[in-house]
Design brief:
Elements (H helix, E strand, L loop, with lengths): L4 H62 L8 E4 L7 E9 L2 E10 L2 E9 L9 E4 L7 E4 L7 E4 L4 E4 L16 E3 L11 H9 L7 H7 L1 E3 L7 E4 L4 E2 L3 E4 L1 E11 L4 E3 L2 E9 L4 E2 L2 E10 L4 E10 L7 E4 L4 E8 L10 E4 L4 E8 L2 E4 L2
Length: about 350
């Protein structure tokens, strides 16, 4: 059969239309991909800009904290001298720690950041010792090393002999020297009030939920997540943030638990030998860190000393990076004890209003 020119053009038309539609679809897809790519890049840039602004807010908060400008009320600070942008900052206590909160709000967007204010780097090793003034000098002998700031009795420090050998170093204190008094410096934090508040919180998280799903609570929330344990054993638990775990009598923190930034409260707290991680523990009467436990920075151990036989004990070969505080709430500090076991190590500060003992 002979194909005419008219028939040939009519047969090509559908193919031509299909090719054109395909090219249009491909072009539209490329334009759409380019649009979303630009949107993604712009979103990443805005996120990076917000990260820079929040970090700038952190530096601003630290400067305001150093100048005693922060408190528990929100305050507005300009991010730029011209005042075209600002950030809100406030400070609140979390056990023995201080938490700084930042907020920045623009239309349809809200950013938050929270961080602990503590010691860092060389500041962790600045405080060496404080000796209450007993009108007798500190005697130092052999190869003993005092490195850091020392508060000494008014009678000062003197060299002494050990195994018939004189003190062997060129200086007696490698750091600044100040004078101690007959009493330890006052502690300004309201730890007893925080303990009572934490123990009296409404139980809004069950122990079963804690063990099954864990707890995460932002410091930006106005609500503290509280779990009062039914049994004293805290094992296979995961908790992070603004969380209080308590028991009216005792809590034993096992190594299978993962705890981050939370507070544990009880009359008596035992941190098991297999525990590794950071913890903030507030005990009313007794706090024991078992042999070999590894407490990482910023761990804080507080025994409030509410009974005359209060005890804070760090057993041999245990390690603590942070702070250990034995206070005296009962007025019977001569019968309270802080005991540091053989080869136990504390990197940080120790505050003790009671008797100190060292195991050999």
């Amino acid at each position: 059969m002979k194909i005419t020119k008219h028939q040939l053009k009519a047969g090509i038309l559908p193919t031509t239309i299909g090719v054109v539609l395909l090219l249009v679809a491909m072009s539209s897809a490329m334009i759409l991909m380019g649009y979303y790519h630009r949107m993604h890049i712009q979103q990443l840039k805005r996120s990076a800009d917000q990260g820079v602004l929040l970090q700038q807010g952190v530096q601003l908060a630290l400067a305001a904290y150093a100048d005693d400008q922060l408190n528990e009320q929100w305050q507005v600070f300009p991010l730029f001298p011209e005042g075209q942008d600002s950030i809100r900052i406030k400070l609140k206590t979390w056990g023995a720690m201080e938490v700084c909160q930042l907020e920045r709000t623009v239309p349809f967007k809200h950013w938050q950041k929270a961080f602990f204010i503590g010691q860092y780097g060389e500041r962790l090793h600045k405080e060496a010792l404080f000796l209450s003034d007993q009108k007798s000098p500190l005697a130092i002998s052999g190869a003993a090393l005092i490195k850091g700031d020392a508060a000494l009795p008014l009678s000062g420090i003197k060299k002494n002999y050990f195994n018939r050998q004189p003190y062997s170093r060129s200086e007696m204190v490698f750091g600044n020297i100040s004078h101690s008094t007959a009493k330890m410096p006052a502690l300004t934090s309201n730890l007893s009030e925080f303990y009572e508040m934490a123990m009296g919180l409404a139980n809004n998280v069950s122990q079963d939920s804690l063990l099954r799903y864990g707890i995460q609570q932002s410091f930006g929330s106005d609500t503290v997540a509280h779990c009062q344990l039914e049994q004293p054993w805290l094992h296979h638990a995961e908790a992070e943030g603004q969380v209080v775990i308590s028991h009216p009598d005792s809590v034993v923190v096992m190594g299978s638990s993962s705890l981050n930034s939370i507070v544990v409260c009880a009359l008596k707290i035992i941190i098991a030998s297999d525990y590794e991680g950071e913890i903030q523990a507030l005990a009313a009467d007794t706090l024991i860190v078992e042999q070999g436990a590894q407490l990482q920075y910023p761990s804080i151990l507080v025994c409030l000393g509410k009974s005359k036989e209060a005890l804070l004990q760090i057993e041999k070969e245990a390690q603590l990076s942070g702070q250990a505080l034995l206070l005296c709430s009962s007025g019977e500090q001569e019968e309270q004890n802080f005991i540091l076991g053989k080869n136990a190590q504390i990197t940080g500060s120790v505050y003790c209003l009671s008797r100190e003992g060292f195991s050999r």
